[in-house]
Amino acid sequence: MQREFLGDSYDAVKRLWGDALLSWAPVYAEPIFIPADLRVDFTRMTRIPMLGKDRPAAYSVLNDPDTGIFTPDKAQQRISRSHTSLERIRGQLAETAVRCAITFDQSNHRKAGRSPRDQRNAKMSWLGERSIRAFYYVSHAPFLFACAAEHTLEEVMVILERAGVPRSRMERCK
User: Fold this and answer.
1) Strand (E) positions, the chain?
2) 98 DSSP β-pair partners
3) Which of 59, 61, 131, 146 is nearest to 97 (CA)?
4) What is d(CA 25, CA 70) in angstroms, rounded to the nearest whole number?
5) pTM metric for this prediction
6) Fold topology of 3-171
7) How does residue 57 score in pLDDT terms, banded at 50, 70 and 90?
């Protein structure tokens, strides 16, 4: 998150996730992706508080790297404000209180020789091989939604659909 992008349409989408999931498993932002001097403004804009030590019994995590998720072949890359890894998402979902991990992912590697959809499928497949269920919200602001169980992922999809998100925007692995 960079100050120059605070308040853009991507933040409005994040606010939708926070509002839609509030009564099911409230969304908390992973603070490593939000600079300390932006956290108050980020929360004001998105209504998503920072994840702290005191955590509710059930919650969702928002990972908001500047760019997105490393492809599976780059899984060993260092986590930074610009990128996260599939392994980190998997680790978040290992916590029983975490119902859903939502991750901004606009990283499409042109050097990879694969289309953006093939890259999304590779990420979802990697998670699926490790018993993590996932779908992408596909738009100008793409997000990966991941859950530890299929029924939980389906609950998220139904909640988002009730909030007005068309199912056609929710892409599962082919």
Assistant:
1) 27-29, 59-63, 68-69, 83-84, 98-104, 133-137, 143-147, 170-171
2) 59
3) 59
4) 26
5) 0.92
6) Rossmann fold (3.40.50)
7) very high
Q: Are strands 133-137 and 98-104 parallel, antiparallel or unpaired?
A: unpaired
- Strand, helix or coil at 112? helix
Domain ranges in the chain are 3-171
71: number of Cβ within 10 Å: 20
- 62 or 114: which leads in pLDDT: 62
The rounded distance, in Å, linking the Cα atoms of 51 and 36 is: 13
Amino acid identity, position 155: E
Per-residue pLDDT, 7: 61
Q: How far apart are CA 56 and CA 73, in angstroms?
A: 34
Closest CA relative to residue 106, chosen from 69, 77, 145, 146? 69
Q: What is the 3-state secondary structure (H, E, C) of 140-171?
A: CCCEEEEECCHHHHHHHHHHHHHCCCCHHHEE
Which residues have a Cβ under 8 Å from the Cβ of 162 and sit 6 or more positions away?
A: 20
Query: Which residues are CB-neighbours of 155 under 8 A, at least 6 positions away?
Result: 24
Q: In the beta sheet, which residues pair with residue 134?
A: 146
User: Which pLDDT does position 116 carry in this prediction?
Assistant: 84
**CA separation for the pair 94, 99 (Å, rounded):** 10
Phi, psi of 160 (to 5 degrees): -65, -40
